[in-house]
Design brief:
With about 110 residues, the chain is mainly beta. The protein has one helix spanning about 100-105; strands at about 15-30, 30-45, 45-50, 60-65, 75-85, 90-95. It has a six-stranded antiparallel β-barrel with strand order 1-2-3-6-5-4.
Length: about 110
């Protein structure tokens, strides 16, 4: 519980990763697209990123938190929210799939 009677109901720890660059990849038609995007926060359930284009809801996405490292774990997620920001960029909410949630639990 926090100061003004607010209770945080999240079941997992949220990491502040403001402006941390990560790599997302997804398939469009028959092509695999990879982009470096800005990550804002990560929890055991998912993450929030900002990028220059929207993705469709339910798009399957692969996430790499340290793409420059040769052995960087890859997690699977899907798009659950897309919001256009005032700057014209897009804020995306991604939820980890069950498989990735198990991997995250093993790394904690």
């Amino acid at each position: 519980m926090h100061g003004s009677g607010y209770m945080d109901r999240r079941q997992s720890l949220r990491l502040d990763m403001e402006k941390h660059l990560i790599e997302l990849s997804w398939t469009e038609q028959t092509s695999e697209i990879t982009r470096t995007v800005m990550c804002f926060d990560v929890s055991g359930g998912g993450l929030q990123v900002e990028m220059d284009r929207p993705l469709s809801l339910d798009t399957a996405v692969k996430v790499k938190f340290s793409p420059s490292e040769p052995i960087s774990k890859q997690f699977e997620a899907k798009v659950i929210r897309v919001t256009k920001t005032e700057s014209g960029w897009f804020n995306l909410g991604l939820i980890f799939t069950n498989k990735s949630q198990k991997q995250l639990g093993a790394t904690r």
